[in-house]
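Person: Please work through this fold.
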Amino acid sequence: MASDATSPKIPTITLNHGGVSMPVLGLGMAPNPAVPDEVTKNAVLEAVEVGYRHFDTATIYFTENALGEGISEVLRRGMPLPPAYPIKPEDFRPFDYKGVWAAMEECQKLGLTKAIGVSNFTPKKLEQLLATATIPPAVNQVEVNPTWQQKELIEFCKTQGIVVTAYSPLGGPLGGHNGVMESNLLKEIAHAKGKTVAQVALRWAYELGITVVVKSFNKGRMKQNLEIFDWELSPEDHEKISSIPQARTCSGLDYTSPFGPFRTVEELWDEEV
């Protein structure tokens, strides 16, 4: 399936694993509320058509099957179905950083994957992993947006050669409103640039030198989200955005369990709540 000839070409970033590259803008596959698999599959087909080649999914999103079916149709070959979900709380076990990462390293050595990475790792957790890793993570996917800027984490990852990928780059519901999409400051910048608030937030992240996965199952907005590579924010814009009050959109509560490995959000984020 060819991409839309009018779609902007998405820049790529080189990972620290053998020169493998990754598109800086991807499609998030975590619809909220949930949608039927057929809707997700069609969104994948439309995303490929307009130029997306980077997709983000996880067990907790319940979109792995539909994403697989969509990619299968694009590639015209079958893909195995994922195991049964959801995972039961009692199935959680203490996280063996060293053992799990060693197994992932072996997968890369066997050629089963081009690169390996982590998600929601704080600097402390990355330091623990790097202490025993023979292959450092290529990517750390975490929440980054104008209302949760993660400056220290991004800087730490850069010193380690780890690419940061932002999820929730457009924020999300927090206290009944979306601090990114409803930000008057971002609206002012968007109006001055002749852009949307979403485009400003995505361009801001891109100019930080990180990659982004943005969620939309609307083909028009998929295209609109790609239109961020031929203009720039000013230093004054960045200074204004830096002044936005900070708060997480993703509390991390869904990633905790009384059975471990993280029983509280304080344990998950290493007190950085």
